[in-house]
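Suppose a classmate hands you a notebook page containing two proteins, each written out with its sequence and a corresponding row of structure tokens. How would you begin to make sense of it? This section walks through that situation. The first entry is reproduced here exactly as it would appear on such a page.
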Amino acid sequence: MSKSGFAVVDNLGVALAAVEDLVEGADEVERPGLERASREIARIIASSLDPRVQWAQRILAGAGVDAGDMVAAVRALRSHASGLGILEAGVLVRRLNEAGSAVQAAGRRRPGPRPGPGPSAEGGVDGRPVS
């Protein structure tokens, strides 16, 4: 946390996983707010895609084509934008699938051991007392 009181998070996937960890241990009062936060972070992740990938996502959704079907997805993109090459269309579909997989994986994450320093028996990190 900075002196201003704000924490800067540059990896929303990590933030989503942390909130989902909190959901697992939350009581019935805290749970709805944490679940809402989790959904909002997932929405932000999905909306922060590269604009070209967002374009591909809109085209495929409008055409009713699943991005998981690479051949059909490339065809749909190329039919919508005649100057789009096979390679470029394939890269867009691959990136769209990767982004979707990252959001889905973050949404399925379960708590487990966290890497790095954690609280010690004294209550601080790495044996340092909490001040």
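The notebook's second entry, a different protein, reads as follows.
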Amino acid sequence: MRLPLDDAGPTQERLAKAGEFFQLVGRSRSSRRITMLDDPLGKALVRRILSAPEYQALRRYALHWAAAACRGRSTASISIASTASTRLP
């Protein structure tokens, strides 16, 4: 059984929005990978403001920050009383 060919990739509108901030890796269709870098960290990497190790570390930090549900929460909104009342086993 042949699997359908997956040509799904970014649309022309998405590529236009990203401008120069994307990477295309791989020569053949089966190994091609497109990475969109139009977020602030990606733009800093493309502009060579950040090195590759710095970019990787900051992406990991952002992932952990989002996973910890800290996105959108400022440190000013965290109550010391509620933090102190939480006891760890």
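A careful reader of the second entry would note: Helices lie at 12-18, 40-46, 52-67, 80-85.
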